[in-house]
Amino acid sequence: MPQPYPQVAVNSFMDTCIERGRRSAPIVPRSVMSNICQCSINYIQQRVSYADFQTLDPNGGQPQSPRQQQAQRVLDDSVNYCVRQQFGG
Description:
With 89 residues, the protein is an all-alpha fold.
C-alpha cells in the first residue's frame, strides 16, 4: 500500500486543482470541484509514488522523463475518472 503524501502537498494540490477547475468550469459549484479534486488526489496517491508526484510541473509543463510521463498520465486519468464518478458518467 503506497504511503500517503505529506498533508502540505495534498493541500497544495487541492488548492491548485480547485482554482484551475473553477477557471475551466466556472458553473461547477466549488463543493463539487472540491469533491473531484479530493477524489483525484486519492486516485493519484494510490498509483504514483510521492517522489514521482513531485517531478510533475505544477504549471502544467510537458513531462520529459518516462516517470514524469507516467505520473502525468495518472493525473490525467484521475481527473477523467473523478469527473465521471461525480457526474455519474
